[in-house]
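QA checklist item 7 of 12: single-chain prediction sanity check.
[x] sequence parsed
[x] length recorded as 488
[x] structure emitted
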Amino acid sequence: MSRKLVIDPITRIEGHGKVTIQLDDDNRVTDAKLHVVEFRGFEKLVQGHPYWEAPMLLQRICGICFVSHHLCGAKALDDMVGVGLGSGIQMLPAAEKMRRLGHYAQQLQSHVTAYFYLILPEMLFGMDAPPEQRNVLGLVEQDPALIKRVVALRKWGQELIKAVLGKRMHGISSVPGGVNQNLSVTERDRFLHGEEGLLSIDEVITYAQEGLALFKTFHEQHRDEIDHFAVVPALDMCLVDDDGNVDYYHGRIRIMDEHKAIVAEFDYHDYLEHFSEATEAWSYMKFPFLKALGREKGSVRVGPLARMNVTKSLSTPLAQSALEEFHDYTAGQSNHMTLHTNWARAIEIIHSAELIKALLNDPELQGKSLVMTPAENGWTGEGIGVVEAPRGTLIHHYRANQSGEITFANLIVSTTQNNQVINRTVQSVAEDYIAGQVNITEGMMNAIEVGIRAYDPCLSCATHALGQMPLEVSLYDAKGDLVDERRR
């Protein structure tokens, strides 16, 4: 008789979702889906507000990747008033570098949070470890010195975000055409050299390297498990510069196939010409895809793994060395091993730290010219901003009327871009870990979540709900009768 497994909600992610897995009479997986069960309303809520409020309002979609939303909105506003990179006008150096500094700071602290707090428990304890162990408290008990370093890393990133954006969360620095403050020499020196309770940038880089070493050790010990866990094909997408290397703040959208052939490349302002979005009755999250290839072949993967697949090189020495090893592992072909996303994420922690160090040593951060004055005829009433958020390519698109009131907003967040490939991952893990099983085990449940957590999904960016949801897993027979149930 056929059965259905339900995991609701998924744990150690941002937001709420559930998974359903359908088994046939022979316990083979016939269907597996990630359901996003919250409703998203920010695109409507912002309508009627003054356009200049958009970066402040829409960053409240999330308490983790708010800097990405803030900067994406700011770039859209630059378009609307006719200044900035999106309009083909080079921003003032101090303004662009301040935005980049905040962007890299967020990527550092966001990746550190995902890598050490959400993903490391399985690396240290295994997927079958009891849930009371595989959490941050278990990590503290296992290696308190490591967790102290992780806390120091996150604090450093958050302090830098505050210094650049004016607040630790939901910053206020970006304005149309620039920023409202630079970085003082005193603040710069705090982050370069450290102080009591605050790391120096060189200590940050050292701790970042330790994070990569952790993955390498784990990989050496569990190579077969990691390399064969949810090998899922997808096109890879990210922003690239003129040399074809990843640019987290600005560039053209490039999409590559498994052989690293360019499938599409275009100015991100033309995204509507290239992408469409499918919907399903069982999820509030859309399914973006390339129109030219259709939904299945045209779905993309974004985020650390996609970026490391697409980029030819990285601009800093330690990250470049790590990238070369990453590329060599697959002999120059694209890497579709889901758990290697954590390898890519560790490389990006190092890259972020090195980029930050370079900017902190750049005297233009203390520049006084911070905002470009729009021309009298510069108003366009429409703007599109794209950045590489920690989780992948993020798109903000606004329109406003002559009174400056927002009439349209469209957001395609990174997790939405990954929706199709995450569902493929759920299917793959279900087939490997659940097919043929009769009893529900903790390890079986957690294997599905491990696959999802590799993408560090931020469902709150796409959807919103109130209240708390416990984890409930229920197994029903074909008649709808409850066979087994677990709750945590």
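[x] summary fact logged: The chain is about 40% helix and 20% strand.
[ ] second reviewer sign-off
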